[in-house]
Specification:
- The structure is a single chain.
- The protein has 284 residues and is α/β, with parallel strands linked by helices.
- The protein has 8 helices and 11 strands.
- Helices cover 27% and strands 20% of the residues.
- A hairpin with a 7-residue loop joins strand 7 and strand 8.
- The two termini are 36 Å apart.
Length: 284
Amino acid sequence: SSAQSNINLAGQNLLRKYKLEQNHGIVPSSVSPIAIETTQLKKGDNIAVIVELGEDATIEDLEFAGAKVLKQRENLAIVTLPIDQVEEFAKNKAVKRVQFGTKMHANLDKARAATSTSWAHLGMMVDHKYTGAGVVTGLMDQGIDPNHVTFMNSDQSASRVKRVWTFMGKDGSFDAYETPEAIASFTTDMKDETHGTHVAGILAGGYESNRNLPYYGVAKGSDIAMSEGLLSDINIIYGVENIIEYAQAEGKPAVVNLSLGNNVGPHDGTDLFSQYLDMLGKYA
């Protein structure tokens, strides 16, 4: 059915549920196997989408069509517009494809059991010790505690977390924590989730005690930038954008982890979400 529209299947499903709720007061539990919550969206509320520009189309064309452009990479852009205008916007000749509405799930269970990370830390069989020093490591996840002891430096005197961004809406908006004081005052995006702290610990946790606990991470000497919150495809892309832009401003390379996934879509790299992430890889 997605071949009959330039809006992706998950986006069509979200719009269908939105219309049922707005027009008939019906809150369907499962219009399709894709579980998307729309009950908090009202007419006029903004929603963010990924847009593939039509041939010869420009960002100005998207803005003229009623969208606010948040980010752009080559022929793809993240834009926000009222949810009740999405279908009309998608018909504009400046728009080739629109993608949104897909919900990711936390999938990571463990990472280090079958690796030789310790060899890299010690400089064995490589040209020098690899600890992540001089690199910004980042992730987009949920349930992250940036003030966990594992994200402190080696003598526990300061945090290695340099930036935190929380995405709790559907319109690409976020709260930024950019100073040590602001980060120290932050607790977590979701009190009932811990996946993000678990993943960030594997990625960059650096806690090592005199008891030789083995639970430190891979890039234990890196700076850390954390994006967290609701795992929509738009929020994930925007979270990665923020990490890469911060690393570039610091003059450092970036590594970004996404221990996320779902069972929706082709999974062959042709969807706009995958293409946008691929573009971001060129700039990390």
